[in-house]
Amino acid sequence: MQIISAEFVKSAFAEPDWPGDSKLEIAFLGRSNVGKSSLINSLLGVRGLARTSSTPGRTRALNFFLINEKFRFVDLPGYGYARAPKSMKAEWGAAAENYLAKREQLVLSIHIVDSRHEPSKQDLQLHEWLEHQQKPHLIIATKSDKLSNNELRKNLVAIERALNIDQVLVYSATTKRGRNEVWNAIEKSLKS
Description:
Helices cover about 35% and strands about 20% of the residues. The protein is built from 5 helices and 7 strands, in the order ββαββαβαβαβα. It has a 7-stranded mixed β-sheet, with helices on both faces. About 35% of the residues are buried.
């Protein structure tokens, strides 16, 4: 897909703040520090659009980005490592779950896992929830450039086994490995 424009629209902490039009949306979700923002920036070819941080848990709201003035990417708060009070973490989780459950414009959820590690307990819970709710989703293993090909193959088998799925897409924000495959999946979901 050719990216003509990509712009930050807004951050939303509650449902009344979500954009009110009918543009289709692709959500990006995963644990804190898994590379959601880096993946978004890499896919769009825009540095710094989605804010990245070395401190896990920086994304605390749902961040909406308008792509080609036709559809949106939505960066959801990460789960896991954020150093924040439990009540605040619960609010972030509730906001993400509410969005995933209710948003009619959502056509694809991109669940991001780290290719270097087995899926966490929260990764497994999220995958089970998406499956149970019959939400269209795909799993992307990021940071593939940090592993040798043998390590990557071995880890992908472990991830697929843990999540009980046939295929995980591989991605590297650094080398752009997997970019075409991810865009093909996104374009397919936008046409469905």
